[in-house]
Specification:
The complex is a heterodimer. By secondary structure, chain A is mostly beta strands. Chain A has helices at residues 2-18, 118-122; strands at residues 22-23, 35-45, 55-66, 71-81, 87-99, 104-112, 153-165, 168-177, 181-182, 206-207, 220-222. In chain B, a hairpin with a 2-residue loop joins strand 2 and strand 3. Chain B is mainly alpha-helical. Chain B starts with a helix and ends with a helix. Chain B has eight helices and three strands. Classes of the chains: A mainly beta, B mainly alpha.
């Protein structure tokens, strides 16, 4: 049933892309480049309990590579010093866009989840004017708020459609990603106390750290 | 069944990948459309980046990245790229290094349309709102200020997103004369 639902959803997303006529960049006089580097950096001062270092910094280069007019590859790395003064290196995203036609793009790899606008568009520190991340998004950089959904990016496939409707715009995203990890059971659990009920199957703890990879076959869907 | 599924998939991809002829990148209508889209899309999340931040080749690589961020179609992305490119190179008559003395002179109204001023500014009440309205601006700021602004958009604001357009001083004065009659 899950496979049928997935197939129907993917087919629907692709069918939506088949409606309009595509657009070609042949005959263009624009210079076509191959590679570009963008990015940003920031230095923050944070006054908070239990911090060893009040000054934290980040350097975030973005690498863009255009293989052809149809295929675009991008990646963003983050080099940061956390509140303990330790260096962390993370890959924010590394994905490939395939421009199927004028309205549809297929993205594969690790990409920023199109869950709202903050994650994919507003989280960079040079855009986000807030002192921290909104609570529903991940702890990232110098965020001081506890998060409910600490995943900005995940690995999978996204099919994006964008249409002009009158004076407005309609865009859809359908994506399948690895989803959160399950917390592995501790092998050194304490022996149950005599008389205490032992539950044969406990509800698994869910761990939201996609940076450590996935450890189960369950997938997350988004639309 | 598997063959049917594969056939449907191939048909969908084939229809979806059908290509049509492109508008020419130096088409003034495409440039004007790009100016409007630049104002509407590029300022939604962050300040519009000045065209001079990147070369034409770099913009051709940056734009597919931004196409996804801004949910633009391929045509819209190309229009924005054409607008940015038009401010960086000689796609127009009035590129200072290769001025063509025999080319027909254009009216102020035609020049404003060619350079897509209404992408960011309102003229006669219509246009974008990234920049100030140009209606009455000559009387308000003076001709010398406007001329200086057209020559060097950052002279009074180093973070201005207004591009420096490849136009001669003669065309700048033509635009100023046109706007002073509004």
């Amino acid at each position: 049933m899950k496979r049928l639902s997935t197939s129907v959803a993917v087919a629907s997303a692709l069918l939506m892309s088949a409606a309009p006529v595509a657009f070609a960049q042949e005959n263009s006089e624009l210079d076509i480049g191959r590679f570009a580097i963008a990015g940003y950096g920031d230095v923050s001062y944070i006054a908070q309990d239990d911090m060893n270092t009040n000054v934290v910094s980040r350097f975030v280069p973005i690498f863009l590579f255009q293989l052809s007019e149809k295929i675009h590859i991008e990646s963003e790395l983050e080099f940061s010093i956390d509140e303990n003064g330790e260096t962390e290196i993370e890959m924010e995203y590394a994905d490939m866009h395939y421009f199927l036609n004028d309205n549809t793009t297929i993205t594969a790899g690790k990409f920023l989840l199109p869950f709202g606008q903050f994650g994919p568009n507003l989280h960079p520190s040079w855009i986000n004017k807030l002192p921290s991340m909104p609570g529903v998004y991940g702890h990232h950089g110098s965020s001081s708020l506890a998060s409910l959904l600490p995943i900005l990016s995940d690995t999978g496939i996204n099919i994006r459609n964008s249409f002009n409707v009158g004076s407005g715009k309609l865009f859809t995203d359908f994506y399948v990603v690895s989803g959160p990890r399950e917390e592995e059971a501790d092998e050194h659990d304490e022996e149950p106390v005599e008389g205490e009920e032992v539950h044969a199957e406990e509800f698994p703890e869910v761990e939201f750290e996609s940076a450590k990879g996935d450890n189960n076959d369950d997938r997350a869907f988004g639309f | 069944m598997q063959l049917t599924k594969l056939s449907i998939l191939i048909a969908v991809i084939a229809v979806g990948s059908f290509s049509a002829s492109a508008q020419h990148a130096s088409d003034p209508k495409l440039v004007a459309k790009g100016a409007k889209l630049y104002s509407e899309n590029c300022g939604r999340c962050h300040n519009p980046r000045p065209a001079s931040d990147y070369t034409k080749k770099e913009w051709s690589v940056v734009m597919p990245h931004m196409r996804e961020k801004a949910h633009m179609t391929g045509k819209e992305s190309l229009a924005v790229e054409a607008f940015l490119a038009s401010t960086l190179t000689a796609d127009v008559r009035n590129e200072p290094q290769v001025l063509n003395e025999n080319a027909p002179k254009k009216s102020g109204e035609a020049l404003i349309a060619q350079f897509g001023c209404q992408g960011c500014h309102q003229v006669k009440g219509s246009g974008g709102k990234s920049g100030p309205s140009l209606d009455g601006i000559v009387e308000d700021k003076g001709r010398e200020f406007i001329l200086k602004k057209l020559k060097d958009p950052k002279f009074n604001n180093t973070s201005s997103a207004m591009p420096q357009f490849p136009m001669t001083e003669e065309d700048m004065k033509t635009i100023i004369n046109y706007m002073s009659k509004e």
